Amino acid sequence: MKTVSALLILSLPMCNPEAINKASNKITDDSTQTAKTITMSDTMHKTNEEWKKILSPEQFRVLREKGTERPFSGEYETNYKSGTYVCAACGQLLFQSDTKFDAGCGWPSFYREAAKGHIVEKLDNTLGMKRTEIVCARCGGHLGHVFDDGPEPTGLRYCVNSVSLKFIPDSVQKK
How many CB atoms lie within 10 A of CB 13? Predict the structure, then answer.
């Protein structure tokens, strides 16, 4: 499984393998509210039963089964507080609030990932469409899709399911 994951990540055109191996970031641990470092080499491999113990049923459906939450129903769709968005499954840093914008699509939208290599792009031909799926590079959790109709400076729109995210306000991160 590790070899297949590594080959998949290395074969993606938008992914920088060197950054994946060297990148690290800080997240907040819920129990202590202190920062800890997670390195990209700490990829997570869990069984469905292990994920079901960690995630809510809706999180499992979206993150592990590539589901989609209903538009305009997510907790973070209209959240514009200052902070950081991390993967709800593993805590991997994904987006900064200053890159969030209102795309009017019903899901949280960002024009840039927080750090190169934290999100992996995969071709998605489901539902008769050609799209680019985005997944967490650390745990492989389905986040949503990225489109090329976003604002400058990137022109990208990372369209993300709220349930796949956890928001950490700046005030909590600075403690």
Answer: 5
Give 27-33's long-range contacts (Cβ < 8 A, gap of 24+): 27/84, 27/86, 27/91, 27/92, 27/93, 27/168, 28/168, 28/172, 28/173, 29/91, 33/172, 33/175
For residue 139, give the CATH number of its domain.
2.170.150.20
Cis peptide before 153 (omega within 30 of 0): yes
**Residues designated as active site:** 159
Domain membership of residue 29 as a residue range: 2-173
- Give the number of residues written for the chain: 175
Pair 112, 94: CB distance under 8 Å: no
Q: Is 159 strand, coil or helix? A: strand
* Per-residue tokens: 61: 């459906």
Helix runs in 29-119, H state only: 48-54, 57-63
As a whole number of angstroms, the distance between CA 16 and CA 120 comes to 10
Domain count, the chain: 1
Q: Is-contact 108 97, C-beta < 8 A?
A: no
Chain segment 81-136, per-residue pLDDT in tens: 999 999 999 999 999 999 999 999 999 999 999 999 999 999 999 888 899 999 99
What is the edge-to-edge ordering of all strands in the sheet holding 119-124?
A: 100-101, 109-110, 157-160, 142-147, 131-136, 119-124
